[in-house]
Structures are given as structure tokens and as C-alpha cells.
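Interim report, section 4.2 (structural modelling).
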Amino acid sequence: MVEPTGAKRSDAAVGTTESTEARSGIDAGTPGRSVAATMRTRDLNLYYGDLQAVQDVTMTVEPHKVTALIGSSGCGKTTFLRSLNRMHELTAGARVEGEITLDEQDIYASGIDPVKVRRMVGMVFQAPNPFPTMSIYENVAAGLSLASGRVRKSVKDEVVERSLRGAHLWNEVKDRLDRPGSGLSGGQQQRLCIARAIAVEPEVLLMDEPCSALDPVATLAIEDLIAELKSRYTIVIVTHNMQQAARASDTTAFFNLEETGRPGRLVEIGPTETIFTSPREQATEDYVSGRFG
Amino acid sequence: MTPEVTRAEYQEELEALEAGALGGLELVSAALARTLEAVEHQDVELAQLVIADDDRIDGRYLEVHQALITLLATQAPVATDLRLISALLHVLKNVERMGDQCVNVCKLIPLTGNEPPADEEMVRLILAMGAQTGALIAQSKRSFEERNVEMARDLVRRDDAVDDLNRECFSLALELGDDPDMREWAMTMLLAARAIERIGDNAVDIGEQVAFVVTGLFREFEDASHPQPTPRP
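Predicted structure of the assembly:
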């Protein structure tokens, strides 16, 4: 059981200044060689004050797989996603009950620093949100400094290049790293945000509708990138685009609510090909077939 | 979430295409009935009519096939809809093949000459095969419309009866004697029996598609290359 944490925004500013060898696990505290982790939720219930948003979700997110969360608006999938890296609690009155583990470690256990959780479990948001006043280089290095404090310039250069290459952006920006990130196209900005997220070498990458603001070509570029990133990370993606879930994910989880005002529940989770060819539940069938939602 | 009916136009189109594909089976039933009549009466003109009319079956195949491909391209069907479309593409191919088998039989009729030494028992066997095959076609259509897997499975049992009649035709042909005209006629009739027997197999294939639509699993009801002995009464 997790006690209500409310909005401890001050946590976000508490980084760690450790600078030791790479270690895995929440206690490691430093960016290192990432190892894709397994995430599990057990009897997870999420609230905004009195309003219950998500009810009784028990599921496993497998490493080196892309797990897509689908469901109509208000079904709790984004709330669920935000609970996986303790961002849900940043909303005033928000509360978490149940258990979420990252490689068997309870991420809501007392003494666990949410900032460290967020370094292990990175997030890419719906609208590309590079820091507007920072250069492309600084945008990527920002996460690194937040997570690890002072880092040598040579190390930073290496991480920035590796991250931009990892995000398929290096060739497009290597000659203008000092230009503002906000000058890039939407698709490039989103890849910049992915570079920023992977710079700290997380174990899990959460993506909240990462392509909804992008054109089809930029969308496919991000999907290609996701397919490549799963060899190193565990990926969870929220998408409204059913075809994207079908194309880009290995596992699909369908969330639904019985009626408006009721909390969202996990209806069915399974291999993506099963969900899109022979789902078990009628509600899943109706949703993926576009019969409602 | 209260389900609301959406994509009504797409659903209507899919239903219409199912009706179109299964309607192809009615065209085949009509072609088979005429084919049998042509066999019974050695009616070369009626046989020519069946051959010419096969264009209608081929036309149905092309029309519904193209519309299904368009639906796949534009509506991104999934789950049951996707299985249904996949099954309908198979059914269309079966319909087209069944029509061709009727044509094959009808093409044989002029080859038997004006006054063939027709053996009554052989003709009776072929007509019986044809009647049972016609019933198989109707049952395959109904099992698809009703998504009735049991009825679809029962096609195997009824098709076994057609296969038995086909074997009887073969045995009878061996017994019809040494007269060259009779032997030629009997061999031609064996080809006709074989074509009708294949129509029955196509009906069983349609039954397998019914099971696929309903269960999501494709399995041959009977594996011709690894046959299981079926208990006979």
C-alpha cells in the first residue's frame, strides 16, 4: 500500500551528485549502461482526490517489448502511464494505492526518491517540449546534469552524440548543436525529446501519444525509432491511433470504463496480433473494430 | 462506456459483400443443377449455356474481391471483421472453382457423342452425387450465414458420402466391359464424377472458413495428406 504523497514538487529539484560506476536499480542513482527492466503493477488504484481514475490494474510490462495502452479518452491510460514513473503524484490531491515494481523493487516504497524513479523510467510527452531557450546540445545534456550533477565536457559530448544518434537525429543536427531546439521541425523536436530521455540511460521509456502532433512521415520515423529502442529499453506507449498500436507494439493493453464517471479498468492485455485478430473480450473487439470510442 | 454504433456505412458494406460472396454459392447451385440436367439428357445446348453463364460467377468473384480489397485498404478492418474478410476472399475463390468444375463437366458432354452407350446405373450414381453436392453447397452457405461451426463440421460427414459414390462410379466403370465406345464414355463420366466430387471438397473448405471466422483458428477439418480413419457405420 502506498501512502498519499500529494504534490511534492520540491522532489523534482533534488538530484543526486553521485558519479560512480554504472549500476542498475533505483538506488544506483547515476546514468549508466541501461538494462531494460520488467515493470509490474498489482491491484493498482489511482485517484484524483475523491475521484477514482483507475481501478484494480494488475499487469506486467515485459522488457525489450513495446507495450501499447489503448482505450477511449478518459479510460485512465495516461493516468496509469504517469503512475509508472511517479508523475501522477505531482497533481494536487492525486493518490496511489497498490503496488508498482521495477525489477521487483517497489517504486513507491518509503525512502525511494521519486527523482531517481523518473531517471530510471523516462517520459516522452504528447507535444514535443524541448526547453525553448536551450540549444539542441543543452537540451540533450539537461537531463544528464539533472540526474548526475556536474559532468565533464568530454563525457557530455559523448553522451549528447550517442543520444542524438540513438534518436536518429544526429545527422540532421550535428552541424548546428548550438542552435535552439525550438527551431527544429515537430518530428525533429520529438526525436530531440527522445534523445533527452535516453541521455540518462533509463530502463523504461514511457511515451504519451508521442506522435499525435506529428505528420504521417514524422510518425513513421518515430515508430521506426521505437522499434529500434526496444532492443535496449522497456517501452510503454499510450496511443489513440489503433493502427499505430498494431504496427508498433508487441503487447497491447485495452483500458475501458463501464460508463462515464466510473474508473478505468484493464479489460484485456495480450500479444498485439491476438488483440487485433482474435481478442478475447467483446469490449476489446468493439473498440479495435471502431464500433465505439 | 456505452457502446454506440459507429462506422455504420462500413458495417453495411461489409454485410453487403458477405451477401454478395455467399450469393455466389446460389449461382453455383443453379449452374450445378443445370449441369446435372445436361448430363442426364446429354443436352449439349444446356451445357453450352452453363459454360457461357460461368462469366456471371467469375464476374461476381471479381466484383466482390475488388470491393473487399478496397475495404481492406480504406477501413483497416481488424478482429472479427478482418477474419470475415479473409474468409470471404477464400469463399470467393471456392465459388469460382466450383463454377469452373461445372464448366469442366459441361465441356465433357459434347465429347460423348450424339448417342452414347449411356449406362443407366452410372448416370444414376452421378446424379446422386450431384444432388448430394448441391445439398453440401446449400449447407455450407447456411453454416456461414449462421456462423454455425457444428453445421460446418457436419459437411465432412456428408462429403464422405459423395466420396463413396465417386468410388462406386470407379468400380462400376471397371465392370462396364471391353467395348471401346463404352469404355470411352465411362472414362468421360469418371472425369465428370471427379469434378463433382471436387465441388463437394470446396464446400467443406467453406465450412473450415466458418470455423475460422467464429474461433479465430484455422484448421483443416480433414487433412488429405495425413488422413485419419473415419469410423463408418
